[in-house]
Amino acid sequence: MVIIGLCWVFSLAFNNQLVLFLGIFFSVLYAWVSYYASASMVLAVSKAKPIEKKDNPDLYRVVENLAITSGLPTPKIYVIADNAPNAFATGRDPQHAVVCVTTGLLDMMDRKELEGVIAHELSHVGNYDVRFMTLVVVLVGIIVMLSDWFIRFSFFTDTDSDNSGGLQGIMMLVGILLAILAPIVGMLMQLSFSRKREYLADSSAALLTRYPEGLASALEKIDKDTRPLKEANRATSNLFIINPLRNNPKNNSGNWFSGLFSTHPPTKERIRRLREMGSHS
């Protein structure tokens, strides 16, 4: 409905119903491709490679045991050859899920910490966060794309012609305002949803392993590591267990404004909540 509403406003602004139909058509096509191919695109961009049980029996066993405990199908396992410790899950549902870790994470974590990280990622799968965030990303992407098209095309449209009545002029102003504000609102919604899902996955992981300290210790180690994750970018950063761009001065100025646009809640707060869970158990 949001996309249809935007397309309708833009079509009124241009006084052309073709804008409405073309906008909806390309939005549906974009959503379909993004939904079914998002996991493959993320893995390709991250340069992640699939592994089998023989390649890393310990990692495979941890993933398999936790998947069985949580009642999920064992996801495919991918590894990124990078010294920076991190991990993420992707896929549109539990049947098409992928868990991906870096070699740096495998080198740094003990078994309990690794179990905490994997439980967190499996919680994203079990809670359908991977599907939810894919849909949110697709929605925001469509809004940004439509807004960008509208602003570009508006420069080449003459709204002062005789055919452009007062209503069309008003709709053009409304359209421009929506084109500017809609992507910002959409991104803020995406970031808010992402932060809430991280807290939920942390608590679900603690319940799954029955050892909150494992994940808390893992988050502490990952957060203290300052090595950049080379293959991470703004498009994929919200998937990782901790923002891989947090140590880049260009992406984190350390003030309230940068916190507003953070894809993850504060790591110290996540650790505090986990250790509170451990003290009450």
Description of the structure:
Strands 1-2-4-3 form a four-stranded mixed beta sheet, with helices on both faces. A hairpin with a 7-residue loop joins strand 3 and strand 4. It has helices at residues 2-14, 17-45, 57-70, 103-108, 111-126, 129-154, 166-209, 212-224, 256-260, 267-280, and strands at residues 49-50, 76-80, 87-90, 98-102. It has one domain. Helix 6 packs antiparallel against helix 7. The longest helix has 44 residues, at 166-209. The protein contains ten helices and four strands. It is mostly helical. The model is unreliable at 159-164 and 252-258 (pLDDT under 50).
Mean pLDDT comes to 79
Q: List the total number of helices.
A: 10
The fraction of residues assigned to DSSP E strands is 5-15%
Q: Write down how many β-strands occur, each being a DSSP E stretch of 2 or more residues.
A: 4
First-to-last CA distance = 45 Å
Q: From N to C, what is the helix and strand string? A: HHEHEEEHHHHHHH
Structural class: mainly alpha
Q: For the largest sheet, list the strands in their spatial order.
A: 1-2-4-3
Amount of helix = 55-70%
The biggest sheet amounts to: 4 strands, mixed
Low-confidence stretches: 159-164, 252-258
Rg from alpha-carbon coordinates: 22 Å
Q: Give the count of structural domains.
A: 1
Quick one: overall form? elongated
